[in-house]
Amino acid sequence: MVKQQKKSEEVNDNNYDVYFYYGGIYRDGYEKLTHLIEERRKNKKLAEAVILVLVTFGGDPHSGYRIGRALQHYYTDHVNVLIPSYCKSAGTLVTISANRLFIGNRGELGPLDIQLQKEDEIGARNSGLDIFKAINHLQERAINSFNSYVKDIRYSTRISTRLSAEIAEKLTDSVISPIASQIEPMKVGEHQRALEICLEYGVRLATKSKNLISNDLLGKLTMGYPDHAFVIDRCEARKLFRNVESPDNNSYIKQLDNLAIIEISESNINFGGEPDVTDFTDRIKNEQVELNKNDESKPITENGNE
Question: Rounded to whole angstroms, what are the CA distances from 80 to 52, 68, 244, 273, 284?
């Protein structure tokens, strides 16, 4: 009897609504998710807590913010996000809305930067990080080149430091100017606005979830990593978020993680394409009930061991 009561309590503790979100973070994905949530509320089946299983290469930050806000609105203080595989860019923005973050052994987040459409390139995109990394690198090269020229000219000739600096300035300008002239101010402004959008949305979601260790870490998420594809695994994520767990520590979450991996391997999913959003709540509950029935049907010996 004690064993059966414990099983029942575990099922009641796992009273979550479960949604699988595969694909790009776009407005229609937000609309699909919101529709599923409102259908559950309409039918009086809305649970207190939610688990969003999220697999994405990213997309639109405005949609990512709306998805995070929707979860916080309908499931206040009970938002859980499970990352079984890739969750990049705008997907990382969604995870900031979570009170608890579960990252599987194959799961990873990415820097919070935005992919902008390249001009004259069909389907090609630039990371918001690219242009600022290029500017920083150019600035470093200019400083290093100037310093090197000044020293070489000053110590290899008998001319003054002032004249050496003037010559070094012209030499540095002749090398750097042709490269710098290719940077478009409007493009810089576009990328800057995109990063500011991510920061502002991140602050609003983090203020509600209280899972980000510090809002200052949003700066690290946007500009602190060297590449858009940089892997933020569970270990790295614990330096950013307060509540980061492994699915292995929770049998119910582990079941979802395993199911997600199977779905990914058996389906032709485009992580950056049209979002596929599914309500898995009833399916998971039915499978959980069947598992409990099978466990309860096993014989119990006198000492409680099977």
Answer: 6, 11, 10, 24, 16
3-state secondary structure of 297: coil
DSSP state of 121: -
Q: Name the pTM for this structure.
A: 0.74
For the domain covering 2-110+231-296, report its CATH number. Answer: 3.90.226
SS3 of residue 122 by DSSP: coil
Q: Is the dihedral of CA 111, 117, 119, 123 positive or negative?
A: positive
Are 33 and 21 in contact by the 8 Å Cβ rule? The answer is yes
Domain boundaries, the chain: 2-110+231-296, 127-187
Q: Identify the residue whose tokens are 């700066």.
A: 219
Tell me the per-residue pLDDT of 105-137, one tens digit each, with 9 for 90 and over: 999 999 987 655 555 544 445 565 666 666 666
Q: CB within 8 A of 53, min separation 6: which ones?
A: 18, 19, 20, 21, 82, 84, 256, 260, 280
Q: Are 59 and 92 in contact (CB under 8 A)?
A: no
